[in-house]
Amino acid sequence: MGHAVRTRLGPYLPQIAFSLALILGAGMTFAVHRSAEQRAVAQFQREADLAVDRVFARLRQHLVMLRAAQGLFAASGGAVSREEFRRFLAAFDGQEELGGVQGIGFARMIPARQSTQAETEIRLHYGQDVTLRPTTTDQPWRTPIVLLEPQDSRNRAALGFDMFSDPSRRRTMEQAMSSGSARMTGPVKLVQEITANKQTGFLIYLPYSGTPVAGGPPVAGFVYAPFRGGDLFHAALAAGPELSIALRVTDAGAVGEVLFDGLPPGETDGHRLTRVAEVLGRQWVFHVQETGSSALRHFGTALMAAASILLATATGFAMTARQQEAARARDLAAAAAREADYRGLLIDEMKHRIKNHIARIQSIARQSARSAADLRSFSESFDARLQAMAGAQEVLAGTAVPQADLASILRRELQQCLDTAEVDHLIDGPPVRLDERQSHAFALIAHELVTNAMKYGGLSAHGSGLAVRWQVTADHQLALDWIETARPQPPKPAASKPAAPGRGGFGSRLIEASLQGELAGHLTRDFTPEGLHIRLHFPLKPALQA
C-alpha cells in the first residue's frame, strides 16, 4: 500500500517538496515579521513613556526651584533684594536647571489703588522707572511682576505687568491661593514674546502667604515661572539619548491650542499613540509618533522571505536530482546486490556459528575433564552439558534471528526432571530476550543450577522446593532469584551434621566462569535455615528488549 502510494506520487515529489518548503518558509517569515513588529511596538511604547517622563522630570525640576524660592521669601519675611535673588539662582546650574524656563520671578499682590508701591519696588531692584500695565483694572487686587531673573531684553519687557488683570492668569492664581499649592495656566502668550520668534507658553504659580494684614490681599504674592513651550520640550527631550519619536502636546482644557508641535509634516507609516497626563491642575495630551524608518525594521522579514524562497527552490532541485540518481542506482544494482548480499550473509552466519560452537565445546570439554575422576564421569558430565547447549540451540533455531527467550531456556532444563505443568508454576518473570552468546552461557548456568538442586535436595519430585523469579531493572540489568527450599532431614547427631551444602565445586566454578566471562555479571549465595538463595545479575542488550 505504502509503496504504491509512493509510486503514484513519485513524479510529483519535487513539486510537493517545493510547496512544503515554501509553506514552512512562509510560516517562519510570518513569525519573524510578527516578532519584529512586537519588538518595534514595545520599543516605541518605551520611548514614548520615556519622552513623557523626561518632560515631567524637567517640570519637577523647575517646581523644586520655585519651592526653594518660596522658602527664600519666607525666610526673608517677603523682602528679598535683587542681589539676594540673583545669588539664590546662581546656586543652581543656570543653563542646565533653567533650560526651557524663561526665568524665575515674584509678583507681589497689592490693592488696586496702591500701584505706586509696586513701581517703587521695581525702581529699588532695577533702578528704572516702570509704570504698571495695564494702567487701570476692574479687579480689587493687582499682581505686578516686581522681580524677574535672569534679566535680559525679554524679561525686562515683563517687569510691571499686572498678571491679575488677565482672566486666564487670574483664574490659575485663584486656584493656587485656594489650594495653597502650585498651579499651571493653560496655553498663553507670554509678555516676553517681543521678537518675531514667538512660542506658545504657560506659567506656574506658587503662592507666598506672607504675614496676614487686616484688609490686605489674600496672599503676599506669587513665586512664578514663565515657560516657552518649544524651549521646554526641546530641553526635556534632549536630556538623554536621542529618541526615535516626535511629539505634539496640547492642553485638554484649551481646544485648538498647541503647546508644542514637533511632528513631521505629512503622513508616515510609523506607529502612533496618545498619552494623557495630569500636571498641576491641567490635563496635557501627548500625541506621539514614530520617526524612524520602518524599512530597516522589516529587513529581517525580507531576508527570511528570500532565504525561504531559495530553500524551497533548492529543495525542489535536490529532490529531482535525488530521484534521478536513485532510479539509475536501482536499475544498475538491484538484482545483483540482493543475490550477493543474501549469499554472503548465509556464509558469514554459518562461519560465525560454527566457530562459536567449536569454542564452546572445547571449553566444556576442558572444564569437564578437570573435574572428572574417571572416563565415565567425564562422559556423563560432558554429555549433559552438550545437551544443555543443544537445547539452547534448538530454542535459537525456532526464531528468525539468533535470539532466545530466557523463560524457554529455563523451562527446557527443568522439564528434564519435572512435568511440563509443574515447571510453569516454578518460574515467573517478564519476557527477556538473549542473543546467541548469552543464550548458550545461560543454558550452561541453568543446567548446573538444576543439577545442583537435584543433588542437594533443593528440587523435590514435584518441584515444590524451587522458585525462580526474575525482573529487569531500570538500567537494563537482569536480576534473577533462584530460591531452593530445603526438604526436612531426619535428626542427626551434632557431630555428623554437615555445614551448608558444598556448592564450591566444579559446577559452582563453571557457573561463575560463565557468568563473569560470557555475561559480564556476578552472583551472590545466601545459605539460610530455610534453604539456599542465589541471585544472578548480568546486563542485557536494550535493543533486544524493545
The gist of it:
By secondary structure, this protein is of the alpha+beta class. It has 16 helices and 18 strands.
Describe this structure in words.
This protein has 16 helices and 18 strands. By secondary structure, the protein is of the alpha+beta class. Among the domains are: 58-234, Beta-Lactamase (2-Layer Sandwich); 345-490 and 501-545, 2-Layer Sandwich (Heat Shock Protein 90), CATH 3.30.565.10. A 5-stranded antiparallel β-sheet has the order 4-1-7-6-5, sandwiched between helices. A hairpin with a 6-residue loop joins strand 8 (245-251) and strand 9 (258-261). Helix 2 (13-75) packs across helix 10. The radius of gyration is 52 Å and the shape is elongated.
What percentage of residues falls in helices of 4 or more residues?
40-55%
Poorly predicted regions are 490-503
- Could you report the average pLDDT, rounded to the nearest whole number? 81
Number of helices: 16
Major sheet summary line: 5 strands, antiparallel
Find the structural class using helix and strand composition.
Answer: alpha+beta
Rounded to the nearest angstrom, the radius of gyration is 52 Å
